[in-house]
């Protein structure tokens, strides 16, 4: 092949491919020389005189962008080399063009079926080689760009989901703290009750009565929703909410409205958004029904037993335990053991019996949570 023709063909490729690296694999030195002379003005060229040597190069740190691979070689033919390239996760995306003197339709079909990107028959025509090399490199660059874009988009979606998730958590916590600023409940109340609910849900996940409901997703949403259980207290007048003594029957009726007020407020939020938000549905359940009792004597709807949503049954135990073990204007804090006894006494009347069972089984963890999130102005917890 005349040198001036080689140079003319190579110049036609353009400068955009200057950084591309091509590996030529052929057991005939003259073929390596000719292809190298054709491609080297525009590409970085690597040469391998055998299949094993080609695999050694491909095992190196820097990978080529394209492989030109002879089929008929001793020791290891091109089909086996191609199979090795495709079996390796590091090299499987490198396009391979077969170069061969086998020019029957069946040979070409076999090469393409085995995964070759293209098939060029010998004797080689420079214009054909350069055009097909360029086409494969452009396709590879397009694939690489798409992969890069997809990876970027995946990272961006993950970042935005994490950001949205954090915003949601902060909003929930802010709303819950807003409710508590008007109540006598302690500052860590929402963190303790949230943890208590998580402990109960974790213990009951394999229980036959709860396994179908307490899925991973449900538990995640349940724990997230728990801090909004008393959001309705923002609608209770201060003279009732902060009264240091016992409430009158009329005042108690007003206090009980916080369950309905909280559920209604969350319901208004649901109507204002374009699509359902699962954690809001659970938050609404908890807000409305966490004061229901197993025997039907609770409020606001006097639900009985399994008619009370699971979310509210778990919150009932968590909320009562925390109310018992922290000081309120109308009572001092009870000891943890006394609170435990009162929860056990409410088994089957106030609380779902199996939820109380889970509470007893996780009592040591409840104590750990109570101690971890003890309010700074509380006395040392009495566990007796």
Automatic annotation (TrEMBL):
<dbReference type="InterPro" id="IPR037522">
    <property type="entry name" value="HD_GYP_dom"/>
</dbReference>
<dbReference type="InterPro" id="IPR001789">
    <property type="entry name" value="Sig_transdc_resp-reg_receiver"/>
</dbReference>
<dbReference type="GO" id="GO:0008081">
    <property type="term" value="F:phosphoric diester hydrolase activity"/>
</dbReference>
<protein>
    <submittedName>
        <fullName>Two-component system response regulator</fullName>
    </submittedName>
</protein>
<dbReference type="Pfam" id="PF13487">
    <property type="entry name" value="HD_5"/>
</dbReference>
<feature type="modified residue" description="4-aspartylphosphate">
    <location>
        <position position="70"/>
    </location>
</feature>
<dbReference type="InterPro" id="IPR011006">
    <property type="entry name" value="CheY-like_superfamily"/>
</dbReference>
<feature type="domain" description="Response regulatory">
    <location>
        <begin position="21"/>
        <end position="137"/>
    </location>
</feature>
<dbReference type="Pfam" id="PF00072">
    <property type="entry name" value="Response_reg"/>
</dbReference>
<dbReference type="GO" id="GO:0000160">
    <property type="term" value="P:phosphorelay signal transduction system"/>
</dbReference>
<dbReference type="InterPro" id="IPR003607">
    <property type="entry name" value="HD/PDEase_dom"/>
</dbReference>
<feature type="domain" description="HD-GYP">
    <location>
        <begin position="164"/>
        <end position="375"/>
    </location>
</feature>
<keyword id="KW-0597">Phosphoprotein</keyword>
<dbReference type="InterPro" id="IPR052020">
    <property type="entry name" value="Cyclic_di-GMP/3'3'-cGAMP_PDE"/>
</dbReference>
């Amino acid at each position: 092949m005349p040198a001036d023709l080689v140079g003319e063909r190579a110049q036609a490729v353009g400068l955009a491919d200057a950084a591309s690296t091509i590996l030529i694999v052929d057991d005939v030195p003259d073929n390596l020389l000719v292809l190298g002379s054709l491609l080297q003005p525009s590409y970085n060229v690597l040469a391998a005189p055998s299949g094993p040597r080609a695999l050694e190069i491909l095992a190196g740190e820097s990978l080529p962008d394209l492989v030109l691979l002879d089929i008929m070689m001793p020791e290891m033919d091109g089909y086996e080399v191609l199979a090795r390239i495709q079996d390796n996760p590091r090299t499987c995306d490198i396009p391979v063009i077969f170069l061969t003197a086998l020019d029957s339709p069946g040979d070409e079909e076999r090469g393409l079926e085995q995964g070759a990107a293209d098939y060029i028959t010998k004797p080689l025509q420079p214009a054909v080689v350069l055009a097909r090399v360029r086409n494969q490199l452009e396709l590879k660059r397009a694939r690489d760009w798409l992969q890069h874009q997809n990876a970027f988009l995946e990272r961006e979606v993950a970042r935005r989901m994490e950001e949205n998730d954090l915003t949601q958590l902060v909003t929930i916590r802010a709303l819950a703290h807003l409710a508590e600023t008007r109540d006598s409940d302690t500052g860590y109340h929402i963190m303790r009750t949230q943890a208590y609910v998580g402990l109960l849900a974790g213990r009951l996940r394999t229980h036959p009565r709860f396994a179908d409901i307490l899925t991973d997703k449900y538990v995640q949403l349940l724990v997230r929703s728990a801090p909004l259980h008393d959001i309705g207290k923002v609608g209770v007048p201060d003279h009732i909410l902060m009264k240091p003594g016992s409430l009158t029957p009329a005042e108690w009726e007003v206090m009980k409205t916080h369950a309905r007020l909280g559920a209604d407020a969350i319901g208004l939020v649901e109507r204002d958004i374009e699509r359902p938000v699962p954690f809001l549905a659970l938050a609404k359940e908890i807000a409305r029904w966490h004061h229901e009792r197993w025997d039907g004597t609770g409020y606001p709807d006097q639900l009985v037993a399994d008619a009370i949503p699971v979310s509210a049954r778990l919150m009932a135990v968590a909320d009562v335990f925390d109310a018992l073990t922290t000081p309120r204007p109308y009572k001092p804090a009870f000891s943890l053991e006394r609170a435990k006894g009162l929860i056990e006494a409410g088994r089957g009347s106030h609380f779902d019996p199996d939820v109380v069972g889970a509470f007893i089984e996780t009592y040591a963890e409840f104590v750990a949570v109570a101690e971890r999130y003890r309010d700074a102005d509380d006395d040392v917890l009495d566990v007796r």
